[in-house]
Amino acid sequence: MKTAFSKDYSVLTIATNKLSYLQFALNCARSVLLFNDISIYIVSNITITIPDDLENNVFIIPALAEQAAMGIGIKLYIDKYIQTENSLFIDADCICFDSLDKIFNACAGMDVSCVGRIVPAADWCGEKQAKAIKDNFGPDNLIRFNGGLYYIKKSQVTTRIFDKAREIADKYDEYGFQRINDKWINEEGPLSIAMMLNNQQPIADDGEYMTDLYTDRFPQLNVLKGYRLLKNPPQGAKHRPWYPPSYSPVILHFGGSTINSYPYNSQNALLKLYYLNVPSPLAYLIVCFIHILYRGYYWLNGIKHKLTDA
Predict the structure, then answer these.
(1) Which architecture characterizes domain 3-204 according to CATH?
(2) How big is the CA angle at 96 (ends 93 and 102), to the nearest 5 degrees?
(3) pTM of the entire structure?
(4) Nearest alpha carbon to residue 123 among 212, 208, 192
């Protein structure tokens, strides 16, 4: 059963400069709409016709050219694109597996929030940059988070937070922040500082709201059934001590190299087959075939590496 949201709630995502990003955004929208009756706004500088199955809920907002040219840096302007009193920004390379009500409720009382933890600044960005942050802005601690999800409320506090983040970003290199691929501004650092200066709190980074594939390369997923189970290894490089042994996120973020991986492709295939009205048993059979191919590839690749290293 879908969760029906009032006109005061919506989802926002960004897909600029590449058609593939817009395709990711449409996939994300389809997954959201499996479980939620909510308006979804896509900020884009690409002109397309919204597919028939999405036309009642999905709307394109034109991206300003100078902001689209910033790449990921356009996320510093999320507040300028929100359309409703309460919004969730979700990265286009995410898949939703459940009602968003849980996330909206967790963010109640905040103006801007995210999934993260408050940590000593040096633990996130190193001693040198932590000192620059302390000297210029005051906080010893920062919210460490993944910018794949934000809650944004229309308010004066939200405007103040984003204005401050943009002011910090104007001297991004001077403050020692690292650029993505030595090119793009990353909004997380400036927004973390601005949120701390305005007494905003994150929601728990416990794997239940939004997470990635860091701990589990082959999670058990079925977006059509809302099934998702990820494992946190008890020890080793992939272990997250603040996570439980297993967890089921509302939103799974496939950023980086995992966007072309088996887990994303399998869920993408399920969504497309579902909206083509392919019967579920046949859809599962097709995805099972994809699963076998990818599992076989990684198994053979693992054997190859073991033989090479021997």
Answers:
(1) Alpha-Beta Complex (3.90)
(2) 130
(3) 0.91
(4) 192
